[in-house]
Specification:
Elements lengths: L11 E4 L5 E5 L11 H24 L19 H13 L16 E4 L6 E4 L1
């Protein structure tokens, strides 16, 4: 069996304990987290590692972690900067509950993925 990537370069097969092919290395991936089951698993695992690392550091520093997922209607023509600006304005106009300052935490990150529309805000 010959497996190649999109350029025709041969992939290297790895074998398991029973001598059967267990996987391949050197292959190209599409990076489309929402469309490709292979890439989705890999990207999800990598993001889980990143979140675990950040949470461990935050807890070690005495912080109280807060993970939120914010969604908003947007189109391909809207840049991530436009979406973040709109989110900041909307958040500032909200009504904070008891014990909240009413503003986004200072710590946070925006992730822009490889595909169109693949972005999320983490804080």
């Amino acid at each position: 069996m010959k497996v190649t990537d999109a350029t025709g370069t041969s992939a290297e097969a790895t074998t398991g304990a029973n001598g059967r092919i267990a996987g391949f290395s050197g292959l190209w991936t599409c990076g489309m987290v929402w469309m490709c089951p292979e890439c989705s698993v890999r990207i999800g695992a990598k993001r889980a590692e990143e979140v675990a690392t950040v949470l461990a550091h935050h807890l070690a520093e005495g912080g109280d972690p807060l993970l939120i997922t914010l969604t908003m209607r947007h189109h391909r023509q809207h840049s991530l900067a436009e979406c973040l600006k709109a989110l900041t304005v909307a958040w500032g106009e909200g009504h904070p509950g008891p014990g909240r300052s009413g503003r986004l935490p200072d710590a946070g990150a925006a992730r822009l993925g490889p595909g169109p529309g693949d972005h999320s805000l983490c804080g």
